[in-house]
Amino acid sequence: MTKPKNFLVIMGDHVRPDALSCVGNPLARTPHLDSLAARSVRFENCFTQAPVCSPARHSLATGRYVHAHGVRNNKDKPYPGMVTIAHALQPLGYRRIQIGQMHWGDPQMDNGYESWIHGEEWLATAPEAIRKRYEWENQSMTRRTTAGPSPREREHHSGHARARRAIEQIQQAVAQDQPFLCWLAFSEPHPPFYPPRDIYERFDQSRIPLPELPPAGAPAAHADVRRRQQEFAHLTPVEIRQMIAGYYGMIELLDGYVGTVLEGIERLGIRDETAVIFTSDHGEQLGEHGLFTKFVMHEASVRVPLLIHVPGNAPGVRDELVEHVDVFPTVCEWLGAETPPTVHGRSLAPILNGAAARGEWRDAVFSQIGATRMIRTAKWKLNLYGAEPGELYDMEKDPKEFFNRIADPSCAGIVKSLSGRVEAWAAATSADGRP
Predict the structure, then answer these.
(1) Domains in the chain, please, with CATH?
(2) CB 155 within 8 A of CB 164
(3) What pLDDT sits at residue 433?
(4) Which of 42, 95, 217, 419 shows a CA-CA span of 20 to 30 A to 312?
(5) What confidence score (pLDDT) does residue 3 get?
(6) What is the bridge-based pairing of β-strands 274-280 and 306-309?
(7) Positive or negative CA dihedral for 122, 123, 127, 133?
(8) Residue 221, Cβ neighbours under 10 Å: how many?
(9) 215 within 8 A of 266, measured Cβ to Cβ
(10) In sequence order, what are the residues at sequence separation of 6 or more whose Cβ sits closer than 8 angstroms to the Cβ of residue 383?
(11) Is the dihedral of CA 215, 220, 224, 230 positive or negative?
């Protein structure tokens, strides 16, 4: 294998795994991400450790499951002694650059990175009309249930400033001949779904299909899901299509910012010595199951894109069950750093090298938000709401998760077995005996 000198991690926010045109999505316009995918290993079954921002990002940063790092929701702080990828690379002399939406639960805690670059300076220098429009788009009544064209141009979104700052920092490292880890987190396509007007108006909304509804006879959604559905129950078909168009407009906006950074890497002459990872903190429901945003264990929220390009490695598509906690040890193995014993994930380097991993690879992945936990195998998904087994889906026969089998007597043994695996996983990966 070829050892890269640098690692660039690019994150979106709310990116579904099917939100790329290279996987056949007719609504997606993602030429830059498609180009990256063409030279990457694309993981079709990558899962976030949490369908919400801060817990997911802490799992990516630490390689630990949610209950182990302590950030169970966006308000929690991590347990003391947090060890991140940046800490692991520090002894090797790496620049450790952090830009954008890092979502640290405790900004005062040592995260191993250099000073945080938020990339929001564009707002301070924007014209007053742009600032007011930004505030209107982000108000609580607008943000999650409306979408449309924005008078804000590409340079009036945070992604523009973050892409520019990333290239500035990388250029400094190159000039000083320093290897770097650049962790670049964009906010796009996070709501509100208001892309620039020219992007939004290219969509023919009459041709946008509405999300598929559960068939007649399907059980009612879990009470927690029904509660969340209430926020979006008033949306008409026209408004749902507006939301979908706005989302894919924001995806196109993100793709342009990613392209700016990748073109900068090319211009600096370091493409052949820089590995690139693209992923997202979690997915986006986008009307499926009557929901937008995330916060649930449905596939649209917990399955995420993962592209890994290592120069000299053959591209491909893999279907193993992988998790965000695997990113940390993968970076360490490629760069020759020691993986701390705190890490729960497994390095993807053997898979990236083309090795067959099925025989010895994991057969289940886990996700958690608050007290809700998920175990997902190739066939089954069980969601536990606290101690209550609330949902069981046969993912082979029912990939859209319409038929909850939790009350099916023939599935009682499966529920018991998977529940036991969740408890065993939680006990084996707890943090120093913390519950």
Answers:
(1) 6-362 (3.40.720.10)
(2) no
(3) 55
(4) 95
(5) 85
(6) antiparallel
(7) positive
(8) 21
(9) no
(10) 222, 297, 372, 373, 374, 389, 390, 391, 392
(11) positive
| Distance between CA atoms of residues 412 and 424, nearest Å | 18
C-alpha to C-alpha distance for 282 and 296, rounded to whole angstroms: 11
Task: Identify the band that residue 432 occupies on the pLDDT scale cut at 50, 70 and 90.
Answer: low
Alpha carbon distance, N-terminus to C-terminus of the chain: 41
DSSP 209: P
Q: Could you tell me whether strands 180-185 and 46-47 are parallel, antiparallel, or unpaired per DSSP bridges?
A: unpaired
Alpha carbon 240 to its chain centroid, in Å, reads: 23
Calculate the alpha carbon distances from 282 to 3, 69, 193 in Å. Answer: 29, 18, 16
Taking the C-alpha atoms of residue 66 and residue 59, their distance in angstroms, rounded to an integer, is: 6
Identify which of 88, 84, 96, 192 has the alpha carbon closest to the alpha carbon of residue 144.
192
With CA atoms as reference, report the closest residue to 13 among 52, 68, 59: 52
Which residue has tokens 């342009």?
256
Percent of the chain with pLDDT over 90: 94
pLDDT tens track for 212-249: 999 999 999 999 999 999 999 999 999 999 999 999 99
Q: Report the pLDDT value the prediction gives residue 408, as an integer from 0 to 100.
A: 97
> Which residue from 434, 406, 365 is spatially nearest to 51, judged by alpha carbons?
365
Q: Where does 302-387 show beta strands of DSSP type E?
A: 303-304, 306-309, 316-318, 322-323, 365-369, 372-376, 380-385
Residue 410 CB coordination number (10 Å): 7
| Pairing relationship of beta strands 303-304 and 46-47 according to DSSP bridges | antiparallel
